[in-house]
Each structure stands twice: as C-alpha cells, then as structure tokens.
Amino acid sequence: MTEAQRYTATEILAILSARQLRDGQVVFAGVGIPLLAATLAQRLRCPGLTILFEGGVIGAFVEPGKLPPSTNDQRCTKRANMVLGSADVLLLLQRGYVDVGFMGGAQIDQYGNLNSSFIGDPAAPKTRLPGTGGGNDISSLTNMIVAMKHEKRRFVEHVDFITSPGFIRGDESRGESGLPMGGMFRVITELAVFGFSERSRRMKVLALNPGVSREEVQDNTGFSLDFDETTAMTEPPTDSELQTLRLLDPERLFTA
Amino acid sequence: MLEAQLEPYTRLRENISKRDRSLREKVVSLEEAASFVQDGMKVGIGGSTMSRTPMALIWEVIRQRRKNLSCSRCIVSTDGDLLFGSGVSDHIITSWFAQGILWGLSKVMRHHVETQKKNYEEWSHMGIGMRFRAGGMGVPFLPMRAMLGSDVMKQRPEAKPVNCPFTGEKLLLVPALNPDVALIHVQRCDQYGNAQIDGLQFMDIDLALAANRVILTTERIVSNDQIRRAPDQTKIPFFCVDAVVEVPYGSAPHECFGLYEPMLKHMESYVAQVNADPVNGMREYLERYFYEPKSWNEYLALIGMEELLEASQRGRSIYND
What we know:
The complex is a heterodimer. By secondary structure, chain A is of the alpha/beta class. Chain A has a single domain (3-248), classed as Glutaconate Coenzyme A-transferase, CATH 3.40.1080.10. In chain A, 23% of the residues lie in helices and 23% in strands. Chain A has 7 helices and 15 strands. In chain A, strands 4-3-2-1-5-10-12-13-14-15 form a 10-stranded mixed β-sheet, sandwiched between helices. A 3-stranded mixed β-sheet of chain A has the order 7-6-11, with no helix packed on it. A two-stranded antiparallel ribbon of chain A has the order 8-9. In chain A, strand 6 and strand 7 (114-115) form a beta hairpin. The longest helix of chain A is centred in the N-terminal third of the chain and has 12 residues, at 33-44. Chain A is globular and about 45 Å long. The two termini of chain A are 19 Å apart. Chain B is α/β, with parallel strands linked by helices. In chain B, the strands form 2 sheets. In chain B, strands 1, 2, 3, 4, 8, 9, 10, 11 and 12 form a 9-stranded mixed β-sheet that branches. In chain B, helix 7 (125-137) packs across helix 9 and helix 11 packs antiparallel against helix 12. At the A-B interface, helix 3, strand 9 and helix 4 of A face helix 6, helix 7, strand 7 and helix 9 of B.
C-alpha cells in the first residue's frame, strides 16, 4: 500500500494536529477536527491534557464512537471535572488559564487571520457564512492552532473579512489593535505544517507532510510562502495513531 | 440606534418593580405563555445550538404568527432558520448561525440574509455573553478584550473601543442586552418558577436576570418541597419568572441534557428538505410540523415514537459510567 492510501486528508490533519499538543496543557477546542485531535492526543500521549469546550466544559474525556455533534451538546461533558456557563468558560481565556486554542478554518491569509463570516463584500455578500461562534474570542486571547483543508481559495493573501484575528497586518499590528497576548502558533493542513515568522508575522512552512513537495504546497497557496533552509519532512502517521483515530470516529463524522 | 437598543436604567427598574414578585403559582398553557411575546419585541432565547432550545415556545410563537421579533441567542441552529423562514423575525443577534456543523451552511439563513436582506447581527460568543451579563447586572455595558482588531468589531458600531481609564489599555465596551421577554426550557421547576437546570447552563442565568419577563417551559413540574431539598440546584429564582408551562420533550428535535439527545433523523430530513429549497421546502415543513398539528403532542407524534425513544435512550446514557 502506498503512503497516500494509508490515510485520508482529514485523518492526517487530525493526527498532525494532535502531535502539536503537550501533556499538561489546557486546550480550548472547537468542534470537528480540533475536538477529535485533542481527544486523540489525550488517548495517545497526553492523559493530562485538559480540554475545554465553549458550551461550558472543563476537562472532558469524550467517549470513542460518541463524538458530540457540536461543542454545546451533552456528549461534551463526558467525564468532565466541571460544567459552567458559556460566558464563564470563555472568560477563562481572557484571564489566561488556556495554553492553546484549537480551531478549524474556512479561509486564512498570510498573517493567519481567519474568515468564517462572509465571502465577498460584507455589505452584499456572495455567501453569508455561519460566523465566529467562540472563534474570535479564542483567537483574540490565546495561542492558536488551526487545522484546515489546503486549497488555493482558502489560503489567500488577504481574507475578505477578519472574523478571528491572527496577526492582523503583520509586524506589531496585533498588539496595537488591543490584543497583546496570543496569536497564531501553527496551521496544519493535509500538505504541510506552518508557523509564523517572529518579525513579519507572515506564514512560513515548517515541515512538509510525507510525499508532499514544496511546489505542491506553493501551487495550492494564494500567496508566496517562505521555506526555511531547514524545512523538515513530517513523520508519517503511525499505525497506532491511525487505529486510535478510527476508534474515536468509527462513523467518520469528522474524518471522511 | 444604540440609544434605541439600550433601555434607561430607571425604566428597567420600573419594569421589575411592576412585576408581581411574590411566591405565586404561575402555571399556564403553552398558548397563553407564548402570547407574552408580542409583535416587535426583543426576544432572548435560552440554551445553545441544538441544546435545551425552547422549541415548544418557538413553535407556538410561530403558530401565533408574530411579526418583527428581534431575537437573540448565543448560538442558533435550526431555530434560527425557523424564526427567519416563518417570517416572525427579521433580526437575529447571535455568534454563529447554521443548522449544525454536520450539515455545512444553512441555505435558509443564506436566502434570508443574502436575498431578503434580513439582519443576522454577528457578535463573538463572549460578546453575546457580556451583553446578557451587563443586562443582568443592571449596568449599561461591560468591557472585554476579544473582538478588538477584527472586522466583527468594525461591523458593530454599537460596541465602543475605549482606552481604559486606569491602565490606558484598549478595551471594547459592549452594550447591555435586556430582552423584553426570555424563552427558556429547563429540566424541572416548581409551580412558582424555581428552575433547576442539569448539565450545561449556557447563558440562561444571565438571560433570565437580564430580561424584563421570563417564560419557562419545563420537562416536568415538581413540588416546591423538592426544590427546597436541593436549593443549590436552583439556577433561576422564582421572582424572575412570569409563566411556567409543563412541556415534555419541549426541546424536540433538539436535545435536553440527561433526558434526550438531538433527534438526528428528523434533523437530517429537515436539513435536506429546507436546503434543497429554502422557500418551498421551509413552507412545507412549517405547514406539516408547525401549523397543522393540533397540539405539541401531535407534533411529537409526527417526529415519531421510535425517534423519541432512541433520543431518550441516548440522552439518559450520559449518566452511565
């Protein structure tokens, strides 16, 4: 079996995202791949990972095969340490108790700004998207990991609308906007793992996924990417990662 | 516009002083409870997404064909579709609007916002929370640190970025939201309205304190003695509440913590029908499930015994080890 056939695009997305988390961290997870990846990390390497959900949950252990259809459903509370109001769990971000925020994305730009509100002109939108939910709060207040599909129309120079702020216009603009803490940390796609340069705050490639070339990543991106001299090649998903992931999502709700 | 949204403090106080806050029985029918909602009102909706949605009240408000409601809820799901699609609301204040992550974008929301120019007023989730909380605290605004720097903030002239008078830092002030009436569904309450909520409480406590009136639907009405045996479980005090209706499965087809999970087969067929044709599909759905049934129980019967039982089995399993 060739490398590419061993797993789907969403499976490698979930697995590489899970690898970014560290035991002992407090992670605020959105629904879908983030929830799945955080739960995967908890099962594989990070039993002490504390997962927060915007519905008002601290420290859940989501049950395999019973993934919640949103982060506001009762399944999110399984084996949690505490449930509280949604405004209060979001305020934990503001106070600083959260190490990592973890979300999906519809459209992202070179500075890590995310758009989930409008395609086209907001005054007369081509498409009205669902909106921020807790995304704006999470990305405003903590360090972010974003897991998303890699397509040219999703990786654009400037997003149509900044729903969830990354580094705004780069350099110091995030802090100057009133967001002194947090910012984009990693972007994970089925093609590569990205970080952001210290100074300019532009997106750069940290590592290529197995079997993916620099050209392939650049061709699927709507702005020019920097590649470090040291751009690494990511280790392929292990059998244990794939098995555990498939155990968590046997119906393939989020890993189609 | 902002001035029109913010109620003067003296009027907020007056509204409360005029309410009968005595420990009195306030059980009414669903029809009577829904009639507290009048055309043009600001309506706050409890629960979140597909959870503890006051669906029976929304159902009855739609049947009573109210108009021009301005509705607010932390996150809306199919309830938002139904409020726009039925024509009772042309303004929804929320942070996220789709049927559910499993189904992508809501074609109903898109149709009403993109072509009918109905207003989906977007705030961050915490922004909605701080607005209800300020409303519940009796102050005109609260400061917060999210939304700054984003286009979500730029779309909201009602929110004011300021420099903190103590530290000089940038902060965002969000205005209080005091709905005319709040619709909230709970697992149990007594005939006076002492409401106990199991599991996720979302923003319901702030919403109940912020609103000028509160209508509760409850899975069951229990005795006041039972409430008094576990007063720590009471999340909304009786004097906030103006009417109580006992409505088993009052969130269907959404979930109610510990009792039933979302009725996903019904949700899936709903989504397929309205996303295929947001106008006619919605009209047919409303006709069949909202206008034609003679009672809430008849609506539940249309969802079907099997689906209700499956949802209940899954709902109760949250307590299994």
